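Q: Hi! First time asking for a complex rather than a single chain. Here are the components, and I think there are two in total. Is that enough to go on?
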Amino acid sequence: MRRLRLTVPILLLVMAPAAMAAQTIAITGGKVFPVTSPPIEGGTVLIRDGRIIAVGADVAIPAGATRIDATGKWVTPGLVDVNTELGLVEVGYGSGANEATAKGQDAIAASFQAWVALNASSVLIPPAREGGVTTVAVWPAGGLIAGQGALLDLLDGSLADMLLAAPAGIAGQVSSDGAAGVGARGELFGKLRDLLENTRDYGRHKADYDRGQMRPVPYRREDVEALLPVVSGKLPLVLAADRAADIEAALALAADLGIRIVIAGGEEAWQVADKLAAAKVPVLTGAMNNIPQSFNSLGSRQENAALLRKSGVTVALIGNGGGDEELFNVRNLRYEAGNAVAYGLSWDEALTAVTHAPAEIFGVADRVGALAAGLEGNVVVWSGDPFEFASYPEHVLVRGREYPAASRQDLLIQRYRTLPPGHTAP
Amino acid sequence: MRMLVAVAAAALLGCASGQAARPVEPAPIKPDTAGPPPGPGALSVPNADPFPSTYTPFASHPTAIQNATIFTAAGPRLERATILLQNGKVAAIGTDIQIPADAVLIDGTGKYVTPGLIDTHSHLGVYPAPGTEANSDGNEATSPATPQVWAEHSVWPQDPQFPRNLAGGVTTLQALPGSANLFGGRSVVLKVVPSRTVQGMKFPGAKYGLKMACGENPKRVYGSRSVAPSTRMGNVAGYRAEWIRAEQYRRSWDKWQASHKGDPPARDLGLETLAEALRGNILVQMHCYRADEMAVMLDVAREFGYRIRSFHHAVEAYKIADLLASDSVSASIWADWGGFKMEALDGVRANLALVDQAGARAVVHSDDPSGSQRLTQEAAKGLAAGRAIGLPLGEEDAIRWVTINPAWTLGLDDRIGSLEVGKNADVVLWSGDPFSVYTRSEKVWVDGALLYDRGDPASLWRTDFEQGYVPQPGESG
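A: Yes, that's all I need. Here is the structure of the assembled complex.
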């Protein structure tokens, strides 16, 4: 998958950063959940130079390794949240610090690369990491086609170091006529089809186009260029859709054009689970919504993820509980998993849905989302069951580097722990 | 400047507190003039309860939940204990109690019992689902001061969010107007029960609340129209101007009530609500995020002699938890929301715990129809955050954040919010520890009547809207 992308010149693929300072870390004695292999009681996770080099019950620990005693603790891969706006939006309203929405042209901004100029110093990143989330996708928002998103590791470093896949997909939506600049859903799908068909024709006849021997394409050339890997099936189109009818229409369009889609939101996806499974279309959804919030989501229910899995649909859990889970509460991803279990998903499946599954959907399963040799050293040591409120991450490692809890929120708590507060740092 | 304000405040406070000794309930009105008695419309005098509650408890059987872990919200947890619900009340609670022969017995082994949960900040009914423009009835955003509007006149009893809240263990909620206005209007306290009418949901005898709002919302809504307020100082000037009018109104009416001489003063719906807040008959529920603004609002309250019952949202309550404790103001807060606008920037997950530790009343509120279904999960987050910084808190503390503290915030702590003999039998049976992510409510009783039973799908409350529109579990749509 990654190799394929390298052949596409307009795509940015950022390779792993330079190795971290040579260091070997051994996390020992914990209940290890590698996700892609069975759990190991009293297992060891060995990390060298930022990558996992061994996972098992009988791993020889090199002399000089830094040891983290995880006896009685739960050890999982860092969690992967593929629906965030981290680094794009600092404060949602009234601050001007919102870089998630491009102007585009006629509600189409496929060429918008949301991660360019992403704020790697966002104060919202440390709290997410403190919640055990070490990899996120960032997506633009707005319009019919919002633009390109990326997957990145939440490490302190340059943006280039953070990026795992950029673009990881192109984000769009088929839920709002108004946002798409049309008056009805049929018109929306017509517009989307026209855009993709023009892109396909442009791709087939690019030389003619350059010589002026092809009819004009009624879209910005940069947007059509950006969509080429979508029509060639190399890059997924991530479509926000909730209503069963919209999901079916999206499936039909994707089948017709031979493109890969991912359904995001998918409140009524359980109603068309068999069709999603047959089309091998994954769904990003949460487990905390059951409100018929609009005529697009009358069938919203908390069993959605469990029912989709039962039908064989690949599911990644994202926040949908209404508590700002794209930014301030990315840290709450683990509670989506817990609630999904309360509503029928098995515990193992829930863990997969916040680790390996999202990594796989976006083509980075060879980098993150599991504990296995060769993967990035993204590891969390939890005080107990990671989905429980009483548990907390005791150690969070991103590419082999441990990140202590030190968010802006921690500093405020420290300042106001006793009243009246001090006025110097922290 | 500060000195001047303080002098003015002292003068007005003295005036207001002198009057505040008057009877709190308006006396019944009798015309004092000869001639044919005027009709109720002509004699436009305040009626304290023009839309009276018609709620009557649902049919109930004596019910004993046995061998459960019980969080009473009034002391330590009881292990392997029994609670008896009879005639709508908690009749007995403990490990050695008499069970009537006709009681329905429920095995609570391995399960937990709590009081019915209470949400002090809900927009159910006024912002129903689906969220259509046609049913968006929560903000009378046509003037910054609309104390004349009553939330109950916007409540749609068929809002499908009501049964979902009941399933989440919520038995009482305060439906509030929105926060566009400095004075948003009256709230209404509802029992979460099926009813054709809002009157059938109204909590009998509950005080009204007055919704007020600080900060960004009023100044944004009106400032964007180039109408006052457009600044925070404009906000405060707006509150004070209304309270000055309200105080005058209250004085003129109280004087007339005492004498019944001459024509009654002209009636004003908005000022009537504010006057009742000044008399203490309506509880002020104040939307306010920032610590410094809350401190200003406490001074405004002192200036006019009213009390703020609860600051809502209060993401910075932890910065002034000592002031909240000394002024007996509760903080109705989210466990972990913040950052979504400038005044929410400093939200921290230890807020609930820090407020509690300072001796103030911490309340988990939702302001969200999804979050209100998981109030104990929210409390669990706050509890974990408090423990993480070494605060000596337990689940017995956290349960109060969703039961007795919100009951106090609504002025109903003598009737609901804890499991004690004589209190209303609003009770939730949980599949396990209510602070676990895996736990779900199993049964919910309101006034002793079983109104939610997860194990009996046919019995579940479905609103009119849901009929035909919302697929039932098991349907593939």
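A: The mean pLDDT of chain B is 91. Let me know if you'd like any chain examined more closely.
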